[in-house]
Amino acid sequence: MNDNTVTVIPGDGIGPDIVDATVRVLKALDCGLEFEYAIAGQTALDQGLDLVPEDTLATLKRNRLALKGPITTPVGGGFTSVNVTLRKTFDLFANVRPALSIPGVKSRYDNVDIITIRENIEGIYSGLGQTVSDDGETAELRSRITRTESERLLRFAYETAVKQGRKKVTVVHKANIMKSTSGLFLDVARKVREDYPQLEHEEMIVDATAMQLAMNPHRFDVIVTTNLFGDILSDLCAGLIGGLGVAPGANIGEHGGLFEAVHGSAPDIAGKGIANPTAIILAGAMMLDYMELHDKAKRLRDTVRDVVGKGEVVTPDLGGRASTTEFTDELIRHLTQ
Ligand code: NAD
């Protein structure tokens, strides 16, 4: 592992713009990082390469740290998701998605502070048993949950809660209906949590969780759940703090991490120069924390919160008129003044 070299995958749609913004900001922060660029997804296919080309795999293996823009995944047919491929290939088993309100950003609630930790390689996203009958009338998809992966993820979640001084962990499931898969996950949670008596424990069914998040998000602290539920609930949490433009995420494995925004490639605004890079810049701050550059991470986070919170130079999704570049310039001005 190269300690200070980060693989950068610009991605599709708004990806190159927001990744460029993030690299500029990280350079301004002067953390001594080196950046190695690589491609994946449609960009790679367009160049006649594999979905995740050999060179990209090699740089990821070497650096074990990556900053990735969103990658378009066609709905239905087309190629397998690059994101799912990368998570599986590099065993990035935990997806950490903090939703932290930024004072000044218009949103339904103030002071939301929820971390969703989502199982990242199993469940309904494992891609197992995807079939459609010859007559096109019946479709199937298998979900697989294992005790080993559930335990690894749950232990990571409880450890993260302890390390970050959190008080409560809510295990979200649907074990009343999906008795096998969700039931197994819940069973493992009940065992693992015995090792964490310092935390308050709670279990909640996923539909009730969605309602509670909308009605009273302040009752949540850390949520840990399986892949699909975590994907949906973390977008819900992003909505609570002002939208996808401000919600970062980290895919964490035993030996490395891949940092990205929760949002996708936003084809509706691609090429317009108005994408909000806040989410992936905050993912950059998560990467700095992961590298134990905590002072730099805090400085970056504080600067983003300051500039975004003031609301004077922000992108249209946050009610402003700034372009991606103008917003990034403003962040850099604050960081270097
Ligand atoms: P999306 O997140 O790209 O967009 C949803 C809405 O949010 C759009 O209106 C978009 O303009 C807006 N939005 C998203 N990010 C924004 C930003 N930074 N600034 C301003 N507005 C922003 O969701 P989608 O349209 O459902 O997905 C588009 C593509 O992205 C799909 O192919 C999907 O599979 C892919 N995707 C990739 C990832 C990833 O690479 N991690 C994650 C989610 C979706």
UniProtKB/TrEMBL annotation:
Transmembrane segments: none annotated. It is an enzyme of class 1 (oxidoreductase). Keywords: Oxidoreductase. Residues 5-331 form the Isopropylmalate dehydrogenase-like domain. The keyword Disulfide bond does not apply. Its EC number is 1.1.1.41. InterPro entries: IsoCit/isopropylmalate_DH_CS, IsoPropMal-DH-like_dom. Gene3D superfamilies: Isopropylmalate Dehydrogenase. GO terms for biological process: isocitrate metabolic process; tricarboxylic acid cycle. It comes from the Bacteria. The keyword Signal does not apply. GO terms for molecular function: isocitrate dehydrogenase (NAD+) activity; magnesium ion binding; NAD binding. It holds the Pfam family Iso_dh. Belongs to the isocitrate and isopropylmalate dehydrogenases family. NCBIfam families: PRK08997.1. This is Isocitrate dehydrogenase.
